[in-house]
């Protein structure tokens, strides 16, 4: 799989899960502007790989703005750095010397098996890949994305952040004809970072676990201030979990359209669960999560990562 992300606190945990799970072959981590600017998101991906001891996985920077709209970031949630909380130092993991879209194209064409794409940020990189390099389409096994919602949004009343930032890109992906799975807010809000979850991570008693506790503590503080929710939903790792164990996330086939022009609804995912439009299904839409199994998977992943090389100085 290739993980396309915009770290972001929940992206950080998605990176750790994708790198740790023995069932996945993580070919690359690519970054896109979304939760924060491209430069910061890319630095954050390298920081996460450094503190988690993830090596041998290329990190490549992609698109720095949406296809059409002006970039809107989520610094009210993720802080000025995009990954506020821990006191990160300079990363030791290098940046790949090619654009993320070029890297994805090369990996897809060269890999002996079809590859799953897991975007957990705006879909700008994925849409650009599909638009500019149609020859890769047969090499994509599926696209499992975190974005959208069957109900309300989180950046506007009906717009989920990742889709709202670049709805034109999302429209390309949902109408690509490729197998698409949508992990939306209706499911991610089932995976809340409760005090019990934080205590469970803290009990691992490793430098990496402490980083995760600091990330989740900051994340919880902003969710409480912005949304009145002291227990934040951990969105992005659920997309990775769906790839690892598909049965962990219950989905149904449904038509999904992306609203591009609505004055109050731009960026909304219009999910026709009851087949009222007559449109053919173009996505598997997540409805339910096996929450205990998800947390077992994620916490277990944190025990397998090597963490920083010098345990006495994790940054």
Would you write up a description of this structure?
It is a single chain. With 315 residues, the chain is an alpha/beta fold. The protein has one domain: Alpha-Beta Complex (Inosine-uridine Nucleoside N-ribohydrolase, Chain A), CATH 3.90.245.10. The protein has twelve helices and ten strands. It has helices at residues 9-20, 38-52, 75-78, 100-110, 124-132, 161-165, 167-174, 185-188, 195-202, 207-227, 237-244, 291-304, and strands at 2-5, 28-31, 59-61, 115-119, 140-146, 180-183, 249-254, 256-258, 269-271, 283-289. The strands form two sheets. It has an eight-stranded mixed beta sheet with strand order 3-2-1-4-5-6-10-7, sandwiched between helices. Strands 8-9 form a two-stranded antiparallel ribbon. α1 (9-20) links the parallel β1 and β2. α1 packs parallel to α11 (237-244), α4 crosses α5 (124-132) and α5 (124-132) crosses α7 (167-174). The longest helix is centred in the last third of the chain and has 21 residues, at 207-227. It is globular. Mean pLDDT is 96; it is low at 310-315. Keywords: Glycosidase, Hydrolase. Residues 1-296 form the Inosine/uridine-preferring nucleoside hydrolase domain. One of its GO terms (molecular function) is purine nucleosidase activity. One of its GO terms (cellular component) is cytosol. Pfam families: IU_nuc_hydro.
């Amino acid at each position: 799989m290739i993980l396309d992300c915009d770290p972001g606190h929940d992206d950080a945990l998605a990176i750790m899960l994708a790198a740790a799970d023995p069932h996945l072959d993580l070919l690359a981590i690519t970054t896109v502007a979304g939760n924060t600017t491209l430069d910061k998101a890319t630095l954050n991906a390298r920081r996460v790989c450094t503190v988690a001891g993830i090596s041998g996985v290329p990190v490549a920077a992609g698109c720095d703005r949406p296809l059409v709209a002006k970039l809107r970031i989520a610094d009210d949630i993720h802080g000025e750095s995009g990954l506020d909380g821990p006191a990160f130092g300079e990363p030791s993991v290098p940046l790949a010397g090619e654009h993320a879209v070029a890297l994805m194209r090369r990996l897809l064409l060269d890999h002996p098996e079809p590859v799953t794409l897991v975007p957990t940020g705006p879909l700008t990189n994925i849409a650009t890949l599909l638009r500019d390099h149609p020859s890769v389409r047969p090499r994509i096994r599926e696209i499992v994305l975190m974005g959208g919602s069957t109900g309300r949004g989180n950046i506007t009343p009906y717009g989920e952040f990742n889709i709202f930032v670049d709805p034109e890109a999302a429209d390309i992906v949902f109408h690509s004809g490729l197998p698409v799975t949508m992990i939306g807010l209706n499911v991610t809000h089932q995976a809340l970072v409760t005090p019990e979850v934080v205590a469970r991570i803290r009990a691992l008693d490793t430098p990496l676990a402490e980083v995760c506790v600091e990330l989740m503590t900051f994340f919880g503080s902003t969710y409480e201030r912005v949304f009145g929710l002291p227990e934040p939903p951990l969105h992005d790792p659920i997309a990775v979990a769906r790839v690892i164990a598909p049965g962990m996330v219950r989905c149904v086939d449904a038509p999904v359209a992306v609203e591009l022009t609505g004055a109050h609804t731009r960026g909304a995912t219009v999910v026709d669960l009851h087949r009222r439009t007559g449109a053919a299904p173009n996505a598997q839409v997540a409805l339910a999560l096996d929450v205990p199994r998800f947390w077992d998977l994620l916490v277990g992943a944190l025990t397998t990562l090597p963490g920083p090389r010098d345990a006495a100085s994790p940054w």
